Amino acid sequence: MAFSVQDRTALITGAGSETDNPRGINFSFAKLLLESGCNVLIADLTLRSEAKALVEKYDRGSPRAIFQETDVRDWLQLERMFEVAEREFGEVDIVCPGAGVYEPHWSNFWRPPGSAPSGDARDGGRYALVDINITHPIRSSQLAIAHFLKHRKRDQPKHLIHISSIAGQVSAMAAPMYVASKHAISGFVRSLGKLERLGIRVTAVAPGVIKTPLWTEHPEKMQMINESADEWVTPEEVAEVMLALIQQDSVSEIIGDRSGKGRQYQITGGTILEVSKTVREVAAVNDPGPGGRPGNSVSHQSAVEEESFQLLREEGWGGAKD
């Protein structure tokens, strides 16, 4: 199932607007693929400065990058990004439905629909976070599998790589919908593991605390971080592991602790790799969890949990507003 990404094509959601400085995971993955000779279609709402510069750098020749404006909550726009990729590149070999949000105030369990500053309407019948973090990767996977089967060739495997999180292995009162979404993605990826029989490998990464705008642009999240004690995992480190999931059949080269020791794992469909300052496979059952490894923990999570209790103490929490 492993292959070189050279001369292949990838479709990535969320690589355009998540980043400026510092970089985000999807942007770093797109950049790494392009540097490795892989065409990339970036599907996102917009291109911020660094993503725009990346597309301009690779706007012609081979490899090539293109941008397709896409709201991942809109199923027709998800279909359109595949149509554009097929028109521009012929076929897609790698799909990463990576767009996601970390329980922002505008779609937040502790700020119910209809309350400020929630953007979820009381009569809307849906949460934006669920649409982005769960429904969009599920629908994108359906479209990817249909595309892969349409272009199926025995000697050309296909890869569908998702972004889960250590939040899919733990609980966190501060972000219960985000945690639920990442538990969902991990279960979804494992459930599709047997697609490898059809030449389609479905895998995921489960990053720890990543220094991306999902954290740095949200003061309510940053108060959980103790900069002198907590270690960040970089988006580039996660992107390297994502590339390894595609190009390698074994993760023996990237698994291990700082002493250089580590187990060897075979990459198969359904594999989920936790990425902190070390990398390990997340077991489907009886997994010990992320533990206190560098890059996995935050020192002040209780501060944001206390905000949730403060909101619950407000009179009429969650009730209808006039």
From TrEMBL:
Disordered: region residues: 285-322
Record-annotated membrane-spanning stretches: none
Entry's Gene Ontology molecular function annotations: oxidoreductase activity, acting on the CH-OH group of donors, NAD or NADP as acceptor
Entry-linked Pfam families: adh_short
InterPro entries according to UniProt: NAD(P)-bd_dom_sf (IPR036291), Sc_DH/Rdtase_CS (IPR020904), SDR_fam (IPR002347)
GO cellular component terms, semicolon-separated: cytoplasm
Keywords of this entry: NADP, Oxidoreductase
Compositional bias (Basic and acidic residues): 312-322
Protein family according to the UniProt entry: Belongs to the short-chain dehydrogenases/reductases (SDR) family.
Protein name: Short-chain dehydrogenase/reductase SDR
